[in-house]
Amino acid sequence: MRTKQDYIKGLSKMKRNLYFDGQLIDRTDELQMDCINVIGTTYDEAAKPENEKLMTATSHLTGEKINRFNHIHQNTEDLHNKQDMTRMLCQKVGGCIQRCMGIDGTNAIYNVSYEADKQNKGATQYHENFKKWLTRFQKEDLIGCCAQTDVKGDRMLRPADQPNPGAYVRIKERLKDGIVVEGCKVHISEASVADEVLVLPTRALRPEDKDYAVAFAVPGDWDGLKQVVTIHNLRPREHYKRGFVPGSTDSYMIFENCFVPWERVFLAGEHQHGGVLALLFALFHRHSYSGCKPAIGDIILGTAALAAECNNVHKAEHVREKLAEIIMTIELGYAAGYTASDLGKPEVYIPGVGFMPYGPGSYIPHSIYCNVGRCLSGEAVWREAEILCDIAGGVVATFPHEKDFAHPEVGPALLKYTKRNPKMSAEDQAQFWRYLGDVLCSATGGIANVGNYHGGGSPIMEQIAITTQYDIESRKKLVRYIAGMSGGDREALAPKADKKKTK
Ligand SMILES: Cc1cc2nc3c(=O)[nH]c(=O)nc-3n(C[C@H](O)[C@H](O)[C@H](O)COP(=O)(O)OP(=O)(O)OC[C@H]3O[C@@H](n4cnc5c(N)ncnc54)[C@H](O)[C@@H]3O)c2cc1C
Questions:
Q1: Residue 357: domain span
Q2: Alpha-carbon gap, residue 130 to 217, rounded angstroms
Q3: Domain total of the chain
Q4: How far apart are CA 195 and CA 144, in angstroms?
Q5: Tens-place pLDDT, residues 328-384
Q6: Between the chain's N and C termini, which has fewer beta carbons within 10 Å?
């Protein structure tokens, strides 16, 4: 397995195709280092003996020890470990750990490429191609990002109906030795610091959308790919440093006349499988949220409790209610993910049919629980910000910059006048308000909230998944029986409950 230093060395050798604020930059540019340090944590922590069970796994392809982020889930324990690893790492960096896109993209493609080959009866080798790619990905301990979201143009038009055919990434040309793709994927997290980019479709596709049913992987600096990056760093500190400084990046990924050889292509034209791939990636990713969102909740809870303590209002009744509200969201989100892991199996839910065997035997978390957990915790983002704002008061918005605290003429006065709780040092209180400003009042904090709300799919997407997959009809039959209406069935839910127990 690699070290963080090996990872950075790898990035330093990549070609320059990153555009930031009108300039071409290197991958190891100082601006990207906060983000690199976040991802670097996944290497540092995996190397610690005490994290071996949580952070490493045995590759089912090679039998070798690999980083869990590059693993294909083989059982429910793997799903539990992925959720717990994500929570543990997000706690350590105080936010998104940014390596989940790779594990979620690889698990989705692993299953769908198998099913597509099966239906094509040997005419395609997507799954073998993917396994070869994955073997190298695991051996070299690479970082993968996942480019799903297309620019999508007019939201009311399907891919093939768009006036701009590149509104969704598509196969522009099929050649003997590969395909040529064009289009633009947007908001792609950590693409500017990833070794490999996994590309897959955004949505369900019709037969006429077949050229949009495309999945492949290319290095982040591949010919025909340009990345326009937004970098989210906190205001730099000189005098009063944070314990950990997180950073993140997102890219617009522009594919123009981009040639992808067949051995890197995992789907090319099978519209039904394209739609399933979009859903399956979203499902794995929503499962990741049941690890990261509880961790972010842990941080928000600690922040709210400390804000109350700084203000010496921590014993007030309304503070207790607000802390309880945050805890309920954290642990319900976690519990949903735990259940999704525990009920995981090599099956997917087909609306109107039920669970069907799917893929070559790797484990898929339970869809309903992934979706309810992600939706609940995603929508809570703004409420949690509201609670922080409420408990903190206005101090967080106008807290003087650090150099004023370091200034001999005004610094001592600032410390004297910003001290609130007599039992906490003035220095600690000032350091806390600086930190809360980063969370609540910075551009980076705002971007994180939008990401936590929309990332993995906006709440409406989870609501669609939940309501199309949940057996509402049986509930209606049950109520018909209880109410004494015609067509009632007292046992409407009983067989399903039994069925769920079989793993
Ligand atoms: C910080 C951040 C990081 C992200 N990281 C990644 C990443 O790494 N990889 C990745 O692939 N994606 C990533 N995303 C993208 C994320 O998954 C999308 O933002 C999300 O799926 C919503 O898509 P959208 O932004 O295009 O919004 P839209 O789909 O345009 O939604 C905007 C509104 O329009 C509505 N709407 C859209 N279409 C329709 C329709 N047909 N009918 C009715 N209403 C409609 C929606 O319900 C919503 O209310 C990231 C996003 C953010 C903000």
A1: 278-469
A2: 9
A3: 2
A4: 6
A5: 999 999 999 999 999 999 999 887 778 899 999 999 999 999 999 999 999 999 999
A6: C
